[in-house]
């Protein structure tokens, strides 16, 4: 239902995440409902979904650039649209600065690593 090719809106996909996936994470850790996602990600040492997707995209573009299929290589090398253009290409997302949640989770993971070392 929340797959890439699903016709469901992004808002509804977010609702499914909030109602189905996040509760499983909190149940697996036996965390109360009020524990922040950033704390769960830190304790489980899991990247946020946006960080995971960004890393997966970077790996894809790295592999696709040297692929033997010329159509795939051509899709990787493109001219990005002007900054004021409304359409965002996938590679542009990789260049965006991380959002607040990712920054917070990465800080907490680093602090956790320093404490355990």
Low-confidence spans: pLDDT under 50, at least 5 residues?
A: none
What fraction strand? under 5%
Q: Could you say which structural class the secondary elements and strand pairing correspond to?
A: mainly alpha
Measured as a percent range, the helix fraction is: 55-70%
Rg calculated over all Cα atoms: 18 Å
Instruction: Provide the residue-averaged pLDDT.
Output: 76
The oligomeric status of these chains comes to single chain
Helix/strand order, N-terminal first: HHHHHH
Number of domains: 2
Sheet with most strands: none
Number of helices: 6
Large-scale geometry:
extended
Work out the number of β strands.
0
End-to-end distance, in Å? 41 Å
Question: What can you tell me about this protein's structure?
Answer:
The chain has two domains: 1-32, no CATH class; 36-116, no CATH class. 3% of the residues are buried. With 117 residues, the protein is mainly α. Helix 2 packs across helix 6. Helix content is 64%, strand content 0%. It is built from six helices and no strands.
Describe the SSE topology.
Blueprint: H1 10-29, H2 37-44, H3 49-65, H4 70-76, H5 90-95, H6 100-116
Helix pairs in contact: 2-6
Explain briefly what this protein structure is.
The protein is mostly helical and 117 residues long.
Descriptive terms for the model:
117 residues; mainly alpha; 2 domains; 6 helices; extended
